[in-house]
Amino acid sequence: DVQLVESGGGSVQAGGSLRLSCAFSGSFRCMAWFRQAPGQEREGVATIDSAGGTNYADSVKGRFTASRDNAKNTLYLQMNTLNPEDTAMYYCAAGGYCVAFAYFGQGTQVTVS
Question: How many CB atoms are located within 10 Å of the residue 58 CB?
Fold first, then answer.
């Protein structure tokens, strides 16, 4: 079975940093981070393909960095200069191509005050 398990969320003050991790089983061409704030639609934050190529939402460019360690089956999201608008549940996702994702984790909460 495919498993995606996020960790690393928490509460942080504005301007602070967090690093999220996602331990996954399986092999995927593309992985991604999404987030969803209360009352809002889920939005894509970053994608990363098997070669390490990345794309970011405009709202996080220059502040967030996605990376993956395929040997450890772990996806990361380094988040710097956090602001309250980054408060959301963050999910990792996996799929064959970076346009649709079949698998999502349970999420990890990030709260910025």
Answer: 6
Closest listed residue to residue 18, CA positions, set 72, 87, 73, 70:
87
- Neighbour tally for 7: CB within 10 Å: 13
Residue 85, SS3 per DSSP: helix
The answer to whether 91 and 36 are in contact (CB under 8 A) is yes
CA distances from 15 to 6, 43, 85, 93 (A): 22, 22, 12, 26
Q: Are 15 and 113 in contact (CB under 8 A)?
A: no
- The amino acid present at 44, given as its one-letter code, is G
**Rounded to 5 degrees, what angle do the CA atoms 100, 104, 110 make?**
115
Per-residue pLDDT of the chain (113 residues; tens, 9 = 90+): 889 999 999 999 999 999 999 999 988 999 999 999 999 999 999 999 989 999 999 999 999 999 999 899 999 999 999 999 999 999 999 998 898 899 999 999 999 99
